[in-house]
From TrEMBL:
<keyword id="KW-0687">Ribonucleoprotein</keyword>
<dbReference type="GO" id="GO:1990904">
    <property type="term" value="C:ribonucleoprotein complex"/>
</dbReference>
<dbReference type="Pfam" id="PF01505">
    <property type="entry name" value="Vault"/>
</dbReference>
<dbReference type="GO" id="GO:0005634">
    <property type="term" value="C:nucleus"/>
</dbReference>
<dbReference type="InterPro" id="IPR043023">
    <property type="entry name" value="MVP_rep_sf"/>
</dbReference>
<feature type="domain" description="Major vault protein repeat">
    <location>
        <begin position="194"/>
        <end position="235"/>
    </location>
</feature>
<feature type="repeat" description="MVP">
    <location>
        <begin position="198"/>
        <end position="250"/>
    </location>
</feature>
<dbReference type="Pfam" id="PF11978">
    <property type="entry name" value="MVP_shoulder"/>
</dbReference>
<dbReference type="InterPro" id="IPR043179">
    <property type="entry name" value="Vault_2_sf"/>
</dbReference>
<feature type="domain" description="Major vault protein repeat">
    <location>
        <begin position="290"/>
        <end position="351"/>
    </location>
</feature>
<keyword id="KW-0677">Repeat</keyword>
<keyword id="KW-0963">Cytoplasm</keyword>
<feature type="domain" description="Major vault protein repeat">
    <location>
        <begin position="52"/>
        <end position="91"/>
    </location>
</feature>
<dbReference type="Pfam" id="PF17796">
    <property type="entry name" value="Vault_4"/>
</dbReference>
<dbReference type="InterPro" id="IPR021870">
    <property type="entry name" value="MVP_shoulder"/>
</dbReference>
<feature type="domain" description="Major vault protein shoulder">
    <location>
        <begin position="358"/>
        <end position="443"/>
    </location>
</feature>
<dbReference type="InterPro" id="IPR039059">
    <property type="entry name" value="MVP"/>
</dbReference>
Length: 470
């Protein structure tokens, strides 16, 4: 041997060690060799001993450049597999990195393999990303199996996606930008094929511009409708907005339909109707269906069209149907006994003849709420009279005393007409009339001056009448 060289010797006859040679490792069974030991005392496994089964392999690495027994030129750091069953004899140029076991692939399953570097597999295929197992075989159990190669590692075991005849699914990112396959995933769950009946339709919207068939070109955002009967699977450029069914209508039934483009609302009455892609049900406040009302005999309703600014009165008996812009006029009526306002709300007025009853109630305890109602009554009238007397001079009061007193007690309205009653709400006292029996000044000097003035006026009047008589 050359200096520093190493050599493995198998089943070699006895030999002496030359000067400078030494045994680096004691003799041990080769990989795959089996040694039977009977009634043997306990012993340790020698270094390197390992039992290889049929579905195993060894991962080997070249330490230096050399040519293997099968004539393959190996380069330093190259890795390859030695697959069993077989006997592997170690070489000084080769290092055993690890052992690998077969990965079992059940029916309807697959392995995703991830390459650790770009390489060419034994089947001649170039591998650079995720690939399926190319080299397969059937083992004794009838299952498919694969020993992943030197530059492969198991990335994921994938279960099959089972689709029935009425199912479909959308697969995202099957390849990368360079067209190399990679791990796929579903955009959504498995979905059912859209099955439309005779009275069904489906509203579709284009997610991007594409050629729909050989004639029609769809632009992004465009909506269109397909009517049944048919089975439909939307392409990836299309999303399903909604599936609609025809609305059956009797001759006395209807719906409000709004055009989304123009905003116009119309009533569809008495026929089965299927909305198109530009229409939608218009929800009136009370109901999305056309509102109908039976006007009874000897009654009437008032209907107002707020958009057309017109109204109509309908007399019964008749069935009335509101247009999309029409509303009933609501009437608030008093009710109960005694009557209270805004108790009844109705849209129908009965024309009569009709009777109305009511109960008038008053609390008797209010009569005794004022201990001295006469004193309060007199003080109130006196205060009112003082106010009116203070606002005029003596001459005006003397000439119009009766009128001024009535005005002070009952007050006047907006037209200066004297009222006819004075009401005290505390005890429900009502004053209906005032009799003026006498008007006398309290001050004696004022009373004397008033008497002298009256006498002088009488004397002047008498003299004037006598002069006229002569």
């Amino acid at each position: 041997l050359a200096y520093g060289d190493v050599e493995y010797r198998f089943a070699h006859p006895s030999f002496p060690l030359h000067p400078g040679e030494e045994i680096m490792k004691e003799a041990s069974p080769a990989y795959g060799d089996v040694e039977y030991r009977f009634a043997h005392p306990s012993f340790p496994l020698h270094p390197g001993e390992e039992i290889m089964k049929e579905n195993k392999a060894l991962l080997l690495s070249a330490l230096i450049n050399f040519k293997s027994e099968d004539g393959v030129d190996r380069v330093a750091r190259e890795q390859w597999l030695f697959e069993g069953p077989g006997v592997y004899r170690p070489r000084k140029e080769v290092k055993v990195l690890s052992s690998r076991t077969v990965e079992t692939i059940s029916p309807n399953s697959a392995l995703f393999l991830q390459p650790l570097m770009d390489f060419k597999a034994k089947d001649g295929q170039n591998h650079a990303l995720y690939v399926k197992a190319k080299r397969t075989h059937v083992d004794n159990f009838g299952k498919r199996s694969h020993i992943f190669y030197v530059n492969e590692e198991v990335f994921q075991v994938v279960s099959p996606i089972v689709l029935a005849s009425n199912n479909y699914c959308v697969i995202c990112d099957p390849v990368n930008e360079e067209g190399v396959p990679r791990i796929e995933h579903l955009d959504d769950e498995i979905m059912d094929v859209y099955v439309l009946g005779q009275s069904d339709d489906i509203i579709l919207r284009a997610l991007e511009s594409f050629q729909d068939g050989s004639v029609v070109t769809r632009t992004a955002g465009e909506e269109w409708m397909l009517t049944g009967p048919l089975e439909y699977v939307p392409p990836i450029e299309v999303e399903v907005v909604t599936v609609r069914k025809a609305i059956p209508l009797d001759e006395n039934e209807g719906i409000y339909v709004r055009d989304k483009r123009s905003g116009q609302v119309r009533a569809v009455i008495g026929s089965t109707y299927l909305l198109n892609q530009d229409e939608e049900l218009w929800p009136k406040k009370l109901s999305p269906a056309v509102i109908t009302y039976r006007v009874p005999h000897n009654a009437t309703v008032h209907i107002n069209d707020y958009k057309g600014k017109k109204s109509r009165v309908v007399f019964g008996p008749v069935r009335v149907m509101l247009g999309p812009d029409e509303e009933f006029t609501l009437v608030d009526l008093s009710g109960g006994k005694p009557k209270r306002t805004n108790i009844m709300k109705t849209i129908c007025l009965l024309l009569g003849p009709e009777f109305c009853t009511d109960v008038l109630q008053e609390k008797a305890t209010k009569l005794f709420s004022q201990p001295d109602f006469l004193g309060n009554f007199c003080k109130t009238i006196a205060a009112r009279m003082r106010g009116i007397v203070a606002s005029v001079n003596f001459g005006q009061f003397h000439k119009n005393s009766v009128s001024l007193i009535r005005q002070s007690v009952f007050g006047t309205d907006a037209d200066d007409i004297i009222g006819d009653r004075l009401f005290f709400p505390h005890n429900n006292l009502v004053v209906k009339s005032v009799d003026v029996q006498a008007v006398e000044p309290v001050d004696q000097r004022t009373q004397d001056a008033l008497q002298k003035s009256v006498q002088l006026a009488i004397e002047i009047t008498s003299n004037s009448q006598e002069a006229s008589a002569r």
